[in-house]
Design a protein that fits this description.
The protein has 66 residues and is α+β, with helices and mostly antiparallel strands. It has one domain (3-58). It contains two helices and two strands. The protein has helices at 12-22, 28-40, and strands spanning 43-47, 53-58. Strands 1-2 form a two-stranded antiparallel sheet. Helix 1 runs antiparallel to helix 2. The radius of gyration is 11 Å and the shape is globular.
Length: 66
């Protein structure tokens, strides 16, 4: 399950990261930086070629998009 769809169930630290990058341009650099910050709190995600993040999940959980 993509946790981006369960926004209200996420820890505050994850919400803060998502909100921080939500106001920024969708670039590979911003996506990379967001993933790096998410990984520091135990989460990760992927991003499409157009730099739109998807598949937010806890580290160690399988991707929903394989």
């Amino acid at each position: 399950m993509d946790l981006f769809e369960k926004y209200d169930e996420l820890p505050l630290e994850v919400l803060a990261i998502i909100e921080k990058y939500g106001d920024m341009d969708e670039t590979y650099e911003n996506c990379y930086n967001m993933v790096t910050e998410l990984e520091s709190v135990g989460y990760t995600c992927d991003y499409y070629l157009d730099a739109v993040p998807f598949d937010l999940r806890k580290i160690g959980e399988p991707s929903n998009y394989i």
